[in-house]
UniProtKB/TrEMBL annotation:
Catalyzes the conversion of GTP to 2,5-diamino-6-ribosylamino-4(3H)-pyrimidinone 5'-phosphate (DARP), formate and pyrophosphate. Belongs to the GTP cyclohydrolase II family. This is GTP cyclohydrolase-2. The gene is ribA. NCBIfam families: PRK00393.1, ribA.
């Protein structure tokens, strides 16, 4: 992973800095959307956000990705320091075309895990090792992680980073994503509290 360039990114919540990295093997571009000085020793408010074209750009209601991205940027702006690592791992790592194929299977009754499995993929194909050079570029060591996904916490800790706090990052469900969120909690271990999100018997990101 190589650093390429940076620029200002003014948003409705404040001005961020956009830093571009390129993955050597795949030539995919990954982004760090940052605010404030990340190189100081204080733990950094951070989110690992995997690309979701349908949710982030097309406003799909069948997932929680777009609202989670917006919420992360708002939280960082409110504190004045933090970063979103925007990772080009569409569809939990299976790519856009296969994600739409999975959507078709979901339209026919499969849940998100079953759809991925029917296409020959694991439920989650993402590799978080690619964030290491991005974090090391800013000398980030201690992290306050915005996530409902314990796998992200474990991945960072396994790489030697100190996750000093996990900040729940739940959003209000809608009629189109309730089953999706329920599946994430039930089959992927995402941390949703029973009854607080309108999910049936749930035990999210």
């Amino acid at each position: 992973m190589n650093y390429v360039t940076s620029s200002r990114l003014p948003t409705e919540w404040g001005e961020f800095n956009l830093h571009v990295f390129i993955e050597k093997q795949t030539q995919k571009e990954h982004l760090v959307i940052a605010m404030g000085d990340l190189t100081t020793p204080e733990p950094v408010l951070l989110r690992l956000h995997s690309e979701c074209l349908t949710g982030d750009a097309l406003f799909s209601l069948r997932c929680d990705c777009g609202p989670q991205l917006k919420k992360a940027l708002q939280r960082i702006a409110a504190e004045g320091r933090g970063a979103v690592l925007y990772l080009r791992q569409e569809g939990r790592g299976i790519g856009l075309i296969n994600k739409i194929r999975a959507y078709h299977l979901q339209d026919e009754g499969a849940d998100t895990v079953e759809a991925n499995n029917q296409l020959g993929f694991d439920a989650d194909e993402r590799d978080y090792e690619l964030v290491r050079p991005m974090l090391d570029f800013f000398t980030i060591d201690s992290i306050r992680l915005m996530t409902n996904n314990p796998r992200k916490v474990k991945a960072l800790e396994n790489m030697g980073y100190n996750v000093v706090e996990r900040i729940e990052h739940r959003i209000q469900p809608n009629p189109y994503n309730q089953y999706y969120l329920h599946t994430k909690a039930l089959k992927l271990g995402h941390l949703l509290q029973n009854g607080t999100d309108g999910l049936p018997d749930s035990t999210d990101d």
